[in-house]
Records
---
Amino acid sequence: MRIQPACFLLVAVLCLGSVFAQQSWNTTLVGRWPNGPCKATFAANNLLYIGNGSSVEILDVSNPAAPVSLARVPVPGEVAEIFVEGNYAYVAASSGGFSILDVSDPARPVEVGTLESRNWTLGVFVSGHYAYLAEWNMGFRIVDVSDPAHPVEVAWDARTRIGVVKGIFVVDSLAFVANSVFGLRIFDVADPANPVEVGAYTARGSVRKVQVVDHYAFVASADSGLRIVDVSDPTHPVEVGFTKSNTPVIDVAVSGSMAYVVDYFGLRIIDVSDVQHPHQVGWLETPSYSVDVSVTDGLAFVADDVGGVRIVDVSQPDSPEQVGRYETGGRVNRVFYSQGMLYALNDQPEGF
């Protein structure tokens, strides 16, 4: 077992006695514990934005060995993905929809705008004045965020409703949509109000995420590894290379000639300098379930679910080394209420 119950969280609860006495259809939320597993990271300018359950936490990682929490702000649901652009952090908050945070002062982030989800908002990418949202089994949405306090949906593409949409990446006027059933779908979004599908690549297995660099799409497939697709002609994408994996590939981040892949069990580093012959050069196991990765300045930041964040020195790709970590709230498996106190049994990883 990679995970074991390791600690109790003790939470003071006010007025819960009257709440528990109410019928389930007539209840009132009086408080919540927002911390939990880490499933999202975004690194920029010595700052790391992470999902900590249903809150966004901002860390100073100028010293990777000793990350310092600057602030934490709750959002409406579990954080699935974060995208930071300028003074704003854009958050895919699962069942809680879409949130926009003003992070101009990283020590005092403020939620300024929200938009309800059509189902579960699992991915977000921002380009220009528009946010592109991956909406689980409800396709993808395009949202005007020119006024962050009042995000407005301008388009919803239902053609991707079959299957699950978890990731989206936008380059120039093209949106690359990761669909679990139909693979990679490519849309012309020159007119954001009227997206037009122009091409598709069908991968073997469930496509989770995609990143586009130059004219190549790096596709994370849960069942068939990392696939590299030439999208120089978006109407006719062609696979040019791949790496097999015995474990599900969940996310990919490309930096320079390396692709950094997480596969539940850890971080894999793949040399993609020759896109036709990619090959693994490094590997680091993580204690929990690695689900997201960001890379910048020779560091990889791995979202490791109940294992929090793992900070990995990847300056030597063939020998990655964990140099720091930050624990998040873990996952609550059991709760017990007694005399105004709520006891929560929390999962934490073994060792590491």
---
Amino acid sequence: MHLSRALTAWAVVAVLVALAGCAAAAGDAATATRAESALLRERFTAGRLARQSAWGPCVLVDSVALVPRSSCARVPKPGTRQFDEISALAVNVARRRTSGASARTLHTAALVDLLWREETLAGVDRAVASLERAAALAPGAAAVLNDLAVARLALAERDQQLRPLLQALDAIERARMLDDTLAPVLFNRALILERLYLVASARRAWARYLVVERDSAWRREATTHARRLAPSRDSALAALGPDELLARGDGPMPAGFHDLVRRAPQSARETGFAVLGEWGRAVGGGDTSRARLALDVAREIANALDAAGADRSFALAVRAIDAPGGGARRRALAGAHADFVDGYALFNRAAYDDAARAFERAERVLRTLGSPASRWVAVYRAAAALNRGDYAAGDAILRRATADATPAEPALLGKATWGLGLSQVRRGAYEAANSYYREAAPHFVRA
């Protein structure tokens, strides 16, 4: 940082602090509007501020950090017209930032602090504090909660801590509950989920954002995020889809199949359970040829996962089908796997009540017949409960799944433990959530 620039920035902050005790005057809204107009001409945060229409690039400068760091527009340089204009407006805003300040004034003051956060170490902390006060004064203001989420995301980048990132997710979910059509809210929700490595949820969130966004520049950025999160569609991955695998008939598995399973074990597990769902439907429909083919494909996937040293959940589920027990047992397992896949489809359409009923049927049969697949069904049944706001039921299901899981199922353990963390986030218990997320991380490494 250049010394003259740093000293000038500190001088502006000193003025802000000195004037903070002045009584609020009439004209808060007009002052805030002028200040926001000047501040938001350029984008200076990774998250999208509520009244930010102008797009600008944000470049990842540290992609391997726990919370990736971004660099956006440079702050105005001392001596420039923009710097002088923003400084004068900042002083005017500060005159109104008192103990009795309005939510609008506090909101605008927070934007000033966010702009200068690289020059003043406490800038982000002040921004968060101001926005928390504003949110308390205006609990129905989605724009305030949106910008609180942006500020907490900036705090997470600075401190490299998950807690403010989890708090950012909480704030943006509250904003979404107030207005689920605001483009900045949907943008920030997708970005925060991505920063939390919730890839599937982030993909869906970016898709939702693209439905409402009309600005081509913001759309390009969102599309870049979505493409980065999308599974690669090279020829090998395309061949891993259940329809493609079953369409090959009795032919050999596609070239590169085993290498793909090694590189993407989670995708292979998901495909495997989808194939078992097709097996269940074929058994139920009396299509013995397709049922035989689907089970053969499932065995190939299970063997490839075992060879890769991955989580054995799916291999254990296939072994349960192949265990002795007679036709009635196998038909019951087939029906349960079909219910699992049906429930998964309903879950992805946010039909959580219907999904929960399908999962409950599947889990009951699979558990009774000793199939380890019951534990994966339980994890999704718990997720449906959490999405309905039934946290106690979701937690109980997840705790039973983790208690029943074996050391050979690290992906399952990680997913269930992560779900317990998500349940805590949604209730505002961030320290407990952070503990669960840290507990889940080693399981994902082994998966």
